[in-house]
Task: inverse folding
């Protein structure tokens, strides 16, 4: 049974303890604000800095200052609130969140949304088999204790994460059979060139390259079918136009990232469709959204990678704490990072062949098992949702919405609470009465 | 270009689509105008409960006639409609309500509708998650539930098979045999049927239909948690209140194993934003009857508008405009009475005898100040 | 259904749990989703009967749902194993 607990008030409340949120919370606290940092995971780090099993604190293998920021955060006065899933905004300046079976209201003067991004999953035959999962996903599972020593893993999809995760998996003793990146060598080439002009990125690039030097990295390649009965046992890949079947224990496949804009949308922040028709929260130079007292930092403002997320977090934290001048000094650096981020997004643009991967029998909505054939007989997301129940399951359209947006050009409809499934008891604020109805 | 039809139906909700099918089957040239997608208005927002209501003889007649039409139709409904004859239990909280149960029983059995009184122990056996101290209930085994949008979609698809047309567009005027859409399309019709539900006064000014806001919550899958649709006896008080905001215990087991939790009624709130306070009140009420409901996972909350009339009965029949008929104002019984509404409408159009008296639902009763509630 | 697999050797900080009545020992800090994977089981069965396991492993996709200590539909990828936890796949 859920009990509501006393509300908690913060001058600056930060949602999301990935790099942007950590930087925001730390910067605001160091500037004198009373800060709370809400996150739905058991520990700090979000996705890219997820805590490794048995080690405390964020994963350091991705570089970019994880150790530095972790230490600064822990040394600051930030109140860390781990395990809280924000699902509603019942009153102004208030967020409601749930942790295990308890609900609580958190109030704020300033709010910084650092809700990060999730992987984009595109359906193809067999993608619902157990042991087919995302790229960041398999890394998260390994950090959560999944033994992969000696396991054959194929990595597919798109984005720099493919290389980064290949490195993590090799370190964990897996046999990374190959990487199938859908982008062409030609579209990656400018990206590689600009890497060379940026020393910080060369280091990052070399670290990954060194670790993955003996993993075949195929461009213009993608998965056609995952095969197996109760779990994946092989994957059919299209490698530079030729088809090859590769045995594997795991298939890690995801196509870049989609920003988590649901909470900003619920709070009334203006969202626009920008690069590659992706939704992004509209912000000004100090990371302010269109909603009063609400800032947004990191991936929800547009996928831009680790360093841009850190910088945006810092800017938002300083601005929220009233130190706009200090925040402004970071603007030139952010401008150049944004340019890099834009080049990155362009290099990994998804090719149209990926739209032909699902057959009519391929499940697109995994919550309600709705196939592609049933979906595409409808003219819009709304009609499909109503008549097939696609998007009405617990994922609330987060997986199938991103897929149908790419496959069919559909846009999801507006966000309503609860933003994540929540217990019935968490939706009401009063103490539960155990007296029968006839006694009032 | 001007198109000509026998019947133009405004609105492809459960009522509009049922009327379209009935008219198309009768050989009429039918066009349905829909501004969004079939079954996307109140039809999508409501509970999909097929229930006999005894708050007035006219309501009883309409709902029992329509329920029997649903029972006949059930075997041909596709799986996506999720028709499930789970029955209703009207729940009595105390001895006073238990007495009312016996009065209700008399009404149902007098009309030949199967009904069964449950004492406290029988109620607990039928629904283990109900609070143990409830006094009992009345079980109506032949009531049913379904998923409304696919039902409306099914009716429309069947109508299309009988050469009806579905036109996507927004109607801006509909009178004297002419329907005009926002994009300039004009249709000439011998008969126009306004089946636009909660917004029907927009197209037919002056009709006494008001928006009555409701909220629902749907949970994740919990097979076996709930067996019947459960409604508290106080539901009718809530439904009849003309001004106050009210909630009533009303829960439904979907065929998927998900639980639908309702119900709330509000006038004077025309925004579609979820009202946290009334949702909390609705949950608190439900938890009194069913404490374990508090520990279920809620996936979605939404609001919608019922089309409410002053006497709780729908408007079915002709208006002063000889070309314009109404099929609206069904409040919380649109799903239930859609099939009977379509039959009665056709009875009007074909001037043939109807299975139940038409008078209680005539739009003209409002002007004459006659009610049958 | 495949036999549950016991990780070799015994983890340094062992936590004992049960999955579908099978006892399992995992390293402290393991998530429930990982424990279910180590046991060789799918977390859940989909509405049309397909076996399913984690897809996103970050609390978004809900494919990792299982019943933990009597509470159904818990997202196991964000849940750390605790001693004595009773887990049932759904």
Result:
């Amino acid at each position: 049974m859920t009990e509501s607990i006393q509300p908690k008030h913060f001058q600056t409340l930060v949602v999301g303890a990935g790099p942007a949120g950590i930087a925001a919370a730390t910067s605001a606290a160091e500037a004198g604000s009373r800060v709370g940092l809400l996150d739905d995971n058991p520990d700090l780090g979000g996705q890219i800095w997820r805590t490794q099993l048995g080690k405390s604190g964020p994963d350091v293998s991705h570089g970019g200052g994880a150790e530095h920021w972790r230490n600064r955060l822990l040394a600051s006065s930030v109140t860390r609130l781990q395990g809280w899933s924000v699902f509603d905004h019942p009153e102004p300046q208030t967020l409601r969140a749930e942790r295990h079976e308890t609900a609580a209201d958190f109030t704020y003067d300033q709010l910084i949304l650092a809700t990060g991004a999730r992987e984009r999953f595109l359906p193809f035959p067999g993608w619902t088999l157990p042991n087919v999962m995302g790229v960041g996903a398999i890394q998260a599972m390994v950090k959560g204790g999944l033994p992969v020593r000696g396991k054959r893993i194929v990595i597919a999809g798109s984005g720099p994460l493919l290389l980064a995760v290949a490195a993590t998996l090799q370190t964990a003793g897996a046999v990374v059979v190959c990487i199938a990146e859908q982008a062409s060598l030609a579209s990656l080439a400018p990206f590689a060139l600009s890497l060379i002009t940026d020393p910080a990125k060369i280091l990052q690039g070399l670290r990954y390259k060194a670790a993955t030097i003996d993993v075949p990295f195929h461009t213009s390649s993608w998965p056609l079918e995952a095969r197996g009965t109760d779990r994946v046992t092989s994957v059919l890949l299209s490698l530079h136009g030729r088809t090859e079947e590769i045995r594997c224990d795991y298939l890690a496949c995801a196509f870049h990232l989609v920003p988590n804009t649901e909470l900003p949308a619920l709070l009334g922040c203006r969202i626009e469709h920008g690069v590659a028709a992706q939704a992004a929260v509209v912000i000004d130079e100090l990371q302010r959204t269109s909603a009063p007292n609400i800032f947004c930092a990191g991936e929800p403002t547009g996928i831009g990678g680790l360093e841009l997320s850190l910088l945006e977090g810092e800017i938002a934290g300083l601005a929220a704490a009233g130190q706009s001048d200090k925040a402004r000094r970071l603007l030139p650096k952010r401008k150049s990072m944004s340019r890099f981020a834009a080049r990155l997004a362009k290099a990994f643009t998804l090719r149209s062949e990926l739209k032909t991967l699902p057959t009519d029998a391929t499940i697109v909505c995994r919550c309600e098992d709705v196939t592609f054939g049933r979906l595409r007989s409808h003219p819009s997301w709304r009609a499909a949702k109503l008549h097939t129940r696609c998007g009405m399951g617990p994922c609330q359209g987060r997986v199938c919405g991103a897929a149908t947006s790419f496959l069919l050009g559909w846009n999801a409809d507006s966000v309503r609470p609860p933003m994540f499934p929540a217990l019935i008891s968490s939706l009401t604020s009063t103490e539960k009465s155990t007296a029968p109805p006839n006694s009032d | 270009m001007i198109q000509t039809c026998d019947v133009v139906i405004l609105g492809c909700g459960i009522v509009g689509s049922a009327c379209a099918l009935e008219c198309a089957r009768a050989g009429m040239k039918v066009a349905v105008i829909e501004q969004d997608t079939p079954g996307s208005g109140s039809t999508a927002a409501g509970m999909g409960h097929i229930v006999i209501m005894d708050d007035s003889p006219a309501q009883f007649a309409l709902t029992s006639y329509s329920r029997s039409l649903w029972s006949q139709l059930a075997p041909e409904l596709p799986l996506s409609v999720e028709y499930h004859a789970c029955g209703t239990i009207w729940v009595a909280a105390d001895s006073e309500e238990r007495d009312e149960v016996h009065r209700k029983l008399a009404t149902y059995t007098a009309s030949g509708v199967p009904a069964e009184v449950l004492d406290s122990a029988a109620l607990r056996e039928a629904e283990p998650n109900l609070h143990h101290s409830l006094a009992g209930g009345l079980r109506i085994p032949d009531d049913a539930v379904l998923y409304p949008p696919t039902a409306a979609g099914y009716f429309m698809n069947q109508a299309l098979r009988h050469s009806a047309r579905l036109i996507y567009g927004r109607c801006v005027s509909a009178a004297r045999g002419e329907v005009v859409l926002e994009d300039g399309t004009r249709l000439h019709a011998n008969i126009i049927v306004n089946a636009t539900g909660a917004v029907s006064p927009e197209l037919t000014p002056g009709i006494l239909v008001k928006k009555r806001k409701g909220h629902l919550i749907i949970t994740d899958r919990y097979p076996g948690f709930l067996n019947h649709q459960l409604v508290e006896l106080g539901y009718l008080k809530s439904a009849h209140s003309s001004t106050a905001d009210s909630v009533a215990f009303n829960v439904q087991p979907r065929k998927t194993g998900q639980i639908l939790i309702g119900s709330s009624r509000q006038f004077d709130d025309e925004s579609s934003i979820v009202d946290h306070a009334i949702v909390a009140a609705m949950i608190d009420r439900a938890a009194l009857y069913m404490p374990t409901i508090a520990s279920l996972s809620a996936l979605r909350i939404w609001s919608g508008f019922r089309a409410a009339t002053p006497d709780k009965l729908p408007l079915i029949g002709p208006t002063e405009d000889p070309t314009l008929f109404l099929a609206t104002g069904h409040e919380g019984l649109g799903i239930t009475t859609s099939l009977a509404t379509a039959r009665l409408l056709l009875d009007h159009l074909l001037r043939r005898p109807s299975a139940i008296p038409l008078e209680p639902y005539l739009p003209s009763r409002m002007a004459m100040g006659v009610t049958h509630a | 259904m495949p036999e549950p697999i016991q990780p070799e050797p015994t983890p340094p900080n062992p936590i004992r749990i049960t999955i579908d009545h099978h006892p399992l020992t995992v390293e402290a800090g393991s998530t429930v989703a990982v424990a279910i994977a180590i046991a060789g089981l799918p977390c859940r069965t989909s509405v049309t009967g397909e076996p399913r396991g984690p897809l996103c492993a970050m609390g978004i996709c809900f494919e990792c749902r299982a019943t933990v200590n009597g509470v159904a539909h818990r997202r196991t990828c964000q849940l750390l194993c605790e001693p004595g936890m009773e887990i049932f796949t759904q």
Summary: Chain C has one domain: 17-88.
